[in-house]
Amino acid sequence: MKRYFIGAALLGSVLILFFILWYGQRDTARELASPAEQIITIHGETLPEQPNTLLAIDPSSQTILSHLYEGLYRFGKDGTVEPGLVEDMERSDDGTTYTFTLKDSESFNGEAVTAETFVERFRMLADDDTNSPFSFFLEDVVNGKAISLGTEEPETLGVRALDPSTLEVTLERPMEGFEEILAMPAFLPQTAIGEWQELDGNGPFHIQSIDAAQLTLVKNERYHAADDITLEKIIVWADAALGQESTGIHPIPYGTEEAVFESFEGEIVNVPRSGVFYLKPNVDEYPFDDVEFRKSLALVLDRDAIASKLARAERPTERLLVIDETETNATLEGDAAETFEAVKERLQQETIEIELLSFVDDEARQIAQSIKQDFEQLDGLKVNIVELPLGEKVRKEVAGDYALSLSGWQPDYPALSAYLTQFETDNYLNSSGYADETYDQLMADARATEGLEARDTKYRQAEQHLLEQAVVIPIYQAGRTYAVDGKYAEIGFPVIGPSYVLHFSEVYKK
Description:
The structure is a single chain. The protein is of the alpha+beta class. The chain has 12 helices and 21 strands. Strands 12, 13, 14, 15, 16, 17 and 18 form a 7-stranded mixed sheet that branches. The longest helix has 17 residues, at 452-468.
């Protein structure tokens, strides 16, 4: 599932090239706090909404579920996806079959987690009756796509248990790096669905209590690696306490006064996220059906001016693939004014008036105004900003009922393709009206490439094609800022996936 996300306050919300900011590496000179003091408190965090791993799309739910369960793979301490319950993995000579040997694991209530547990979960994920927004994760598994479309039965999915501790997964074609996606929350071994306090997970923590104000997790002594877990308790409070409470972890909202940062006794951590905000023209609408007109907008956009409007952890970017650490030539060449004058002459127009669709949000309002100022430097261009509530804006955008939109994208799976599929001709998420045979072929060639490095090279070519045609005009990469108590160590803040990872965290004495 990929989803629209609008504004820093609404972001919240691994990937193959995965970056993690780890705050507070253990200082051997410090003394570890007692077990009774091994408590991490988080203030001002959204509480989880959806306890079903197959349906949970909000970051808060995905974060908590990732602490209640452990799947085949997980988010690791060193910033990569690492084995969770996988003891060993073998890939067949033809590259299509993965065989996973599993560690012994049981739930909080003592139920064994076996290969058959994962077979059942994979089938439920693929089943069109489940209607999971993450069923596309299995489209490369034998019959996965057909099952999600309802043309095959879940039992035909290319997954089976060879014995209680051996799981086999067969792909439609060889694809190096497939196992990376298995760290996503949709693959967690949830055997029964109920209210949050009823969940019987096999992960490092268990829910002790939850209400409208707070959530408390406690250590799960049945976790297969319980001896490696130092934390005894995690408390998440919905109410913000930044400025009143100097301990704990505080997500810092957009627009926070600098004095608040200066008053905090701990560390300020800026965390880049996988989301990217951009301008998305509807290429079916005049004058955005003219590639040179779109280019003139991309060329005149001043990202440095926009930078002052962004939150601390957000940063301007010319890339759509913001998680990609490989350098590319993403700069569009040309002169904005000359390009725009040529467009006016060809269209026989002295003035051109356009509408920019934005939303009701302080940060978005400032960014939209900055964009308007940049665009209206083009002689004869008039920009009208239309702000709509989030739901109404998204509905118009999904329906293609817009001309130019300040929009965003947050991937939900660990591949560069997560940013690109929405622009393919027949993709159901393609609301921009873009249809290009060259682009579609680049995407098809990438999918048919087994090797990860070669496949990503082709995806970068597809990205460059979009940027050269100004089908998407990137503005900035999303990010989130946290104030973190100086007593805490090994707090993980992933770029994609859970908002935080506390499996390896420790509390020290000050």
